[in-house]
Specification:
The protein is mainly α. It has six helices and two strands; from the N terminus they run αβααααβα. A two-stranded antiparallel sheet has the order 1-2.
Length: about 120
């Protein structure tokens, strides 16, 4: 169980790293490596507890849009991550996503990156 959680943490941190690399003008972060550890941990917790609830509540929209509504869910989860890091203020760790459009592009990329990394590294 702890191995699975650790793999999820590393994959979420890796997805966040690639996301900040792919969108350097739209997504800024502070905290260096600590950001990726803390944000990866928070994103793992968000994905475990909040994402399944959102997917159940949004199931009709997900079906109607053939899964494209997941982009909005991922964008919302990134907003939750940014907001929670802003509230907690963990040793100068922050995430800033510039606009609502950037959230949607980041939601799309984060979902794709997570899917690719999970298909490669999880068994």
């Amino acid at each position: 169980m702890f191995r699975s959680l650790f793999i999820r943490l590393v994959l979420n941190a890796g997805s966040l790293y690639m996301l900040t690399y792919l969108m350097p003008k739209d997504i800024t972060y502070t905290g260096g490596i600590a950001f990726f550890v803390v944000a990866g941990l928070f994103m793992t917790i968000i994905n475990i507890f909040i994402k399944p609830i959102l997917k159940i509540l949004a199931l009709p929209f997900i079906i109607l849009t053939a899964g494209l509504f997941m982009i909005f869910i991922n964008a919302f989860l990134l907003w939750i991550l940014s907001y929670s890091l802003d509230i907690i203020k963990f040793q100068n760790v922050s995430l800033v996503i510039q606009s609502k459009g950037s959230y949607l592009v980041a939601g799309l990329l984060f979902g794709l990156l997570n899917w690719v990394l999970n298909s490669i590294f999880r068994k």
